[in-house]
Design a protein that fits this description.
- The protein has 532 residues and is mainly α.
- The protein has 5 domains: 114 residues; 78 residues, no CATH class; 96 residues, 2-Layer Sandwich (Ribosomal Protein S8, Chain: A, domain 1); 120 residues, Hypothetical protein af1432 (Orthogonal Bundle); 73 residues, GMP Synthetase, Chain A, domain 3 (2-Layer Sandwich), CATH 3.30.300.20.
- The strands form 4 sheets. It has a 3-stranded antiparallel sheet with strand order 3-5-4, covered by helices on one side. It has a 3-stranded mixed sheet with strand order 8-9-10, with helices on one face. A two-stranded antiparallel ribbon has the order 1-2.
- Strand 1 and strand 2 form a beta hairpin.
- Helix 5 packs parallel to helix 7 and helix 11 packs antiparallel against helix 12.
- It is flat.
- The relative contact order is 0.04.
- The N terminus is likely disordered.
């Protein structure tokens, strides 16, 4: 290598004064080049090891990421599988419930079908019996025609009467002979039809009443307000009783403060006043400042709160019955029914119960259940109206709803006719009458002692028996109807109508009673004969 460098370098450079002989220079550069080469080899080896380590680390990270991803995927797959199993179990449970419901409905439908088949068989048997009776009547009629022809020929042969006179005589004779048989047959057919109708009506009412789980609700005439201590009683009474007098004057209620610990009794027959007094007294007790001015302020605030609450009460009633399209004015009137009583039966609870009963009976009869519900809910809405609406509460309620145009004419007619003051125009009117009577007359609906009930029934019967020509009188339907039996020889039809009016007038003048009382006068003639 040195020889090659010597050849390459110019001749004059072979010797350098500052370096001496060039062969020594080249000899010194060999270790440097060798060291650089070794260093390069070591550097290459180091970088190769480093790259290999980084590649190994990268591969490990990739493997770790793959394992983590696999674990995450497995966990997600397990979660999805678990959710799937849960959903499958829920769907299987729901499917099982629905299948059981369908099986139950199928059993009910099968039972109804069997009942229908039995009724159809019974009707077929009756039709066959009627057909046989009709055939017997036709046979009898043909026999009578034959006898009539024989009589006519005989009469024509032995009598000098004209043909028309003979025909008239024969007609009278046949009419007299067949009148009794036709009368008995007609009475038998009518009695059987009435029995069938009565049985169907009973089944419909029982099916509807059994589906309605009602509970007796009685509103009391007193409310108890709890006090934090007995010292508060003295603050409620005030100096010389001025606070309690002011409270009773503003609210129209009575405060009863006795020895009962930590409580005060608010008494009033008006539920609205009692509620206002309760809210006001609780606010005064909570505030602690009780004087005439604060009492008046608390009562005004309580009245505003009650006015707002009637809207929420009306909305809650509509939600319970699933009804819509009710104007705000009607909604407020429905809420006010919550603070009205009818013989200790809450008017709103009574209206909701009548609505449910009407809907159930309507469903049994194949009528529109929503119309029946609306008629039942609004039938007593006239009880909360002021003197602007004249007439009875039934007519006033119908006129009130008619102003807004939101109700069907059949609903308005049913409301106006539910006390039989207006002529019914649809099946919803008698349906509402029945539902109203069921709600009012069911056991426990209206608080009335047995002694007062018995006395009222006796008074009804005594008033009816006090009139001339009355044989007997019976109070039925829990005292809501009085049936008077008169002697047909002493009382004619015109006198029977006047007798019903006189009894009704006496009842209105002398008795106190809930609802209405129907007076029915029965005048019947019976003729009996005995064949021996």
């Amino acid at each position: 290598m040195a020889t090659q460098l010597a050849r390459i370098l110019p001749h004059n450079h072979r010797r350098m004064p500052f370096l001496g002989d060039t062969s020594n220079f080249y000899f010194m550069t060999y270790p440097v080049l060798a060291g650089a080469l070794v260093l390069a080899v070591f550097a290459a080896f180091y970088f190769w090891r480093r790259i290999r380590a980084l590649r190994s680390e990268a591969e490990e990270r990739v493997a770790l990421a793959r394992r983590e991803a696999k674990v995450s995927v497995d966990a997600e797959r397990s979660r999805i599988q678990l959710d799937y199993e849960k959903k499958r179990l829920e769907l299987e449970r729901e499917f099982s419930d629905r299948r059981s419901q369908l099986e139950q409905k199928e059993d009910e439908a099968l039972s109804a079908l069997l009942n229908t088949e039995r009724e159809r068989d019974a009707l077929e048997k009756k039709r066959e019996s009627y057909g046989k009776e009709l055939e017997a009547v036709e046979a009898r009629e043909s026999e009578l025609r034959g006898l009539t022809r024989d009589y006519r020929r005989r009469l024509e042969s032995i009598s000098t009467l004209s043909t028309e006179a003979i025909h008239e005589a024969l007609r009278r004779e046949v009419r007299n002979e067949c009148a009794e048989e036709l009368r008995e047959l007609r009475a038998e057919i009518l009695s059987e039809s009435e029995k069938e109708i009565e049985e169907n009506a009973k089944r419909t009412l029982l099916a509807s009443m059994q589906r309605l789980a009602s509970r007796p609700l009685h509103d009391i005439t007193a409310t108890i307000v709890s006090l934090p201590s007995d010292d508060m009683k003295g603050r409620i009474i005030g100096r010389e009783g001025r606070n309690i007098k002011s409270f009773e004057s503003v609210t129209g209620t009575t405060l009863l403060i006795d020895e009962t610990p930590d409580s005060v009794l608010i008494s009033s027959f008006d539920p609205v006043r009692r509620e206002v007094a309760r809210i006001a007294l609780e606010a005064l007790v909570k505030d602690g400042r009780i004087h005439p001015a604060s009492i008046e302020e608390a009562v005004r605030a309580a009245e505003d709160e009650v006015k707002q609450s009637v809207i929420h009460i009306g909305e809650d009633a509509l939600r319970r019955l699933r009804l819509t399209r009710v104007p705000p004015e009607v909604l407020g009137a429905v809420g006010k029914l919550r603070y009205r009583l009818s013989n200790n039966q809450n008017s709103l609870d009574h209206s909701i119960e009548v609505a449910n009963l009407s809907a159930l009976i309507a469903s049994e009869l194949g009528l529109d259940t929503e119309l029946a519900k609306r008629a039942g809910l609004f039938h007593d809405i006239g009880k909360v109206l002021n003197e602007e609406y004249t007439g009875s509460h039934a007519v006033a309620g119908a006129n009130f709803l008619k102003r807004f145009g939101s109700e069907d004419p059949r609903v308005l007619n049913a409301i106006a006719a539910h006390h039989e003051e207006v002529q019914p125009e649809s099946p919803y009117a008698p349906l509402l009458i029945v539902a109203d009577s069921l709600s009012a007359l069911r056991p426990g609906a209206r608080a009335e002692s047995i002694d007062s009930y018995i006395q009222r029934v006796r008074n009804l019967e005594d008033i009816a028996r006090s009139f001339a020509g009355v044989n007997d009188a019976y109070a039925i339907q829990a005292g809501r109807e009085i049936r008077v039996i008169v002697s047909p020889a002493e009382v004619n039809d015109t006198e029977a109508r006047q007798l019903a009016r006189d009894i009704r007038r006496r009842i209105e003048e002398e008795l106190q009673y809930p609802g209405t009382i129907r007076v029915t006068v029965i005048r019947e003639s019976r003729v009996q004969e005995t064949a021996r």
